[in-house]
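A student in our group prepared the protein record below, which I am reviewing. What it holds is a sequence and that sequence's fold in token form. My question to you is simply how this chain folds and whether the tokens agree. Do not assume that whoever made the record got everything right. I have pasted the whole thing underneath without changing anything:
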Amino acid sequence: MKGFILTLEAGIAAVIMFSFLFVVIQLQAGEPELSRISYSCLKDLDNKGYLRFYALNDENSLNQYLEDCLPTLSDFQIKVCNTSICPADNLPSKDIFLTGYIIAGDTEFNQTLINLWVWSK
């Protein structure tokens, strides 16, 4: 009987341990999801042919599209730059994910960097 109780106790301990590990892994896996989604939003706009126009001519439409594309529990800041140095303005003290996307000009090589910072609200 004593062996049965020890085996049962070990089984319960294993279930508790695996449950804890499963929960911790799930929490950590959800954070980089914002980075993947933000890249997908920019890539989708580029595939549709709108990203270059919005970035160079109409940042308000770009912001509106990103508000609709990104999860409602997230916030973002976007900046369009012509150089590789493209710092953000006044980011919150949270875990922030940066997505950088480079586009070129239509007829000549005018490299434009689009930086998208995303964080949970």
